[in-house]
């Protein structure tokens, strides 16, 4: 992936979103990625709310694309208080052979000026 690239976000049975992402060089063994264009539409179309968790799974193919799974805060909160509590975002159940990362939605990610920043 280049420093700036077009990326496809796919939510199964919902749709595709074409976004532009910028990767900043690693600091402290992490990278930061910002979705420059298309995030607001993605967040609005998927009714993302603060507390929701998006899991981005890298897909194989010619074009950089991610399958996005969304765990709703209401579901997460229910599990948190049930007999199988989740203690952190890392506990949100998800397994994949492909690389993936999880992002907990913050107010700045889903508000009117939404711009998404990911650290991985």
Secondary-structure blueprint:
Blueprint: E1 4-11, E2 15-27, E3 30-37, H1 39-45, E4 53-58, E5 65-71, H2 73-81, E6 100-104, H3 107-110, E7 116-119
Parallel strand pairs: 1-5
Antiparallel strand pairs: 1-2, 2-3, 3-7, 4-5, 4-6
InterPro entries: B3_DNA-bd (IPR003340), DNA-bd_pseudobarrel_sf (IPR015300), REM16-like (IPR044837)
Subcellular location: Nucleus
Protein name: B3 DNA binding domain containing protein
Describe the protein in words.
By secondary structure, this protein is an alpha+beta fold. A hairpin with a 3-residue loop joins β1 and β2. About 8% of the residues have low confidence. Strands 6-4-5-1-2-3-7 form a seven-stranded mixed beta sheet. The chain has three helices and seven strands. It has a single domain, classed as At1g16640 B3 domain, CATH 2.40.330. The radius of gyration is 14 Å and the shape is globular. This is B3 DNA binding domain containing protein. Keywords: DNA-binding, Nucleus, Transcription, Transcription regulation. It is found in: Nucleus. InterPro entries: B3_DNA-bd, DNA-bd_pseudobarrel_sf, REM16-like.
Percent of residues in β-strands: 35-45%
Distance between the termini: 14 Å
The biggest sheet amounts to: 7 strands, mixed
Task: Provide the helix percentage.
Answer: 10-25%
| CATH architectural designation | Beta Barrel
In total, the number of strands is 7
The chain-level mean pLDDT equals: 74
H/E order of the elements? EEEHEEHEHE
Query: How many H/I helical runs?
Result: 3
Provide the spatial order of strands within the biggest beta sheet: 6-4-5-1-2-3-7
Anisotropy-based shape: globular
Radius of gyration: 14 Å
Main CATH class:
Mainly Beta
- State the domain count: 1
CATH topology: At1g16640 B3 domain
Low-confidence stretches: 80-88
- Derived from helix and strand composition plus strand pairing, the structural class reads alpha+beta
């Amino acid at each position: 992936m280049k420093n700036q690239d077009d990326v496809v976000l796919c939510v199964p049975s919902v749709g595709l979103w074409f976004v532009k992402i910028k990767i900043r060089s690693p600091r402290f063994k992490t990278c930061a990625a910002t979705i420059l264009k298309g995030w607001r539409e993605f967040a609005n179309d998927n009714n993302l709310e603060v507390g929701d968790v998006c899991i981005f799974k890298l897909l194989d193919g010619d074009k950089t694309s991610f399958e996005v799974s969304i765990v709703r805060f209401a579901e997460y909160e229910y599990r948190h208080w049930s007999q199988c509590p989740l203690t952190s975002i890392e506990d949100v159940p998800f397994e994949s052979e492909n690389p993936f990362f999880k992002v907990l939605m913050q107010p700045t990610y889903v508000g009117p000026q939404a711009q998404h920043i990911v650290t991985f």
